[in-house]
Every structure is written in C-alpha cells, then in structure tokens.
C-alpha cells in the first residue's frame, strides 16, 4: 500500500471500493500505484466489462500532457487502422476529469492487462527460478515493442525528455 502521506491537497484522490466515477465506472479493487497515480480495477457499467482506471494525482494532472496524449491516441485507435503495431499498444477506452477533496484529477480508462514484465521478473526471482526470458521469447517481446513504437510514431506520438 502507498503511504497515507500521498493523500493531501495536490496528491492522490481518495477512492473506496464501490465508488462510481463518471456515472459509469464502479471501483472493484486497487491494482497498484506509482509516484504520480493510482490504478484501479473497475467495472464499466455501460459495457458490462472490466477495465483499468488510472487516476493521476492533482499535481500531476496540472503538469502532465498524459490526458491529451491519451485522448489523441484514443481518437487514432477509433479510426480502424490496420497497422500491425496497433495490437501492441494499450487501448484507451475513455478519459475524463474528476474534482475531489485533493484537487482536479485526470482519469484514463484502458483495457485491463496482465502483470508487467518487471513483476514477472521479480516473481521469477523470488521463486528461486532465476531464469531470464528465453531468447526466442525475448526476440518476440522486442519485435512486439518495436511494432508498438512504430504505431505510436504513425499516430504522431513520441517519447522524449
């Protein structure tokens, strides 16, 4: 769990299991958190499916272009493009803004994915497996990442400092 100190004016938005956001997304469970956001398992009450909801801290929302980039990506994804990298980029379902006791928070709803590669590596390590990804798996992961980056570039989205 994250430290309660993250919940201050400008910080994380307080959420409870069962909360409904944007009259559509019911919070089921917490999936995780990072320095700038919390991530929640939600049920989309309109489409009757599960999704992931990222809620940025108020300070991050004020200083981040993540919401506008997500909105742009969502528009590109809805065009029906057949680019081979499209399937290797997370699907954006919705974006919205909420007002809470700690400020204004940007929210991004995406498809629900499995564990990260980092989490997989950590689990392998603690299982005393110490095995790295097999070379053929590593090659497939690298190829899929390259396809995803190519699709993002086609959408005029780049990562930079």
What does this structure look like?
It is built from four helices and six strands; from the N terminus they run E-E-E-E-H-H-E-E-H-H. The model has no long low-confidence stretch (mean pLDDT about 90). About 30% of the residues lie in helices and about 25% in strands. It has a six-stranded antiparallel sheet with strand order 1-2-3-4-6-5. It is globular and about 50 Å long. A hairpin with a 3-residue loop joins strand 2 and strand 3. By secondary structure, the protein is α+β, with helices and mostly antiparallel strands.
Strand-helix topology:
Layout: E1 20-21, E2 25-33, E3 37-44, E4 49-56, H1 58-63, H2 66-77, E5 92-100, E6 103-110, H3 117-126, H4 135-154
Antiparallel strand pairs: 1-2, 2-3, 3-4, 4-6, 5-6
Helical fraction? 25-40%
- What is the overall silhouette? globular
- What average pLDDT do the residues reach? 91
Record the strand order, biggest sheet. 1-2-3-4-6-5
Count up the helices: 4
Structural class: alpha+beta
How many β-strand stretches? 6
- Portion in strands: 25-35%
Report, as a whole number of angstroms, the end-to-end distance. Answer: 29 Å
Sheet with the most strands?
6 strands, antiparallel
| Rg over CA atoms | 17 Å
Unreliably modeled segments: none
Q: N-to-C SSE series?
A: EEEEHHEEHH
Quick structural overview:
This protein is an alpha+beta fold.
Descriptors for this entry?
161 residues; alpha+beta; 6-stranded antiparallel β-sheet; 4 helices; 6 strands; 27% strand; globular
